Amino acid sequence: MRKLTAALLGCLLLAGCAANWQAQEVRYKIVSFDNSTPTELFRLELVGAAPKGALDPSGLTKLSNTKSDITGGADVGDEVLCLVEQEKGNAFGNSNVVTHMKTCKKA
User: What is the model's pTM?
Assistant: First the structure.
């Protein structure tokens, strides 16, 4: 019984190193447009402070998104609401925080 308890605690500790920050709507301002490549990108900057609980608040300050992925006909100077989440790897893989932008719409 003690061996089973020790094994379960060990697994919980290793699995506990992984974390994620659930998708939340975050407000960004479109600061520029880059069409120098076939993928047209909007450069986005965070409006206000990063939401509480973010794993890496600095990872939310400046992001990019393709023009076609922003609904509502947004342009430079407009504000958009984007669904963003962050995840951190575990002890067995990459332990860096990765930020994912899911969808954006004109605010």
Answer: 0.76
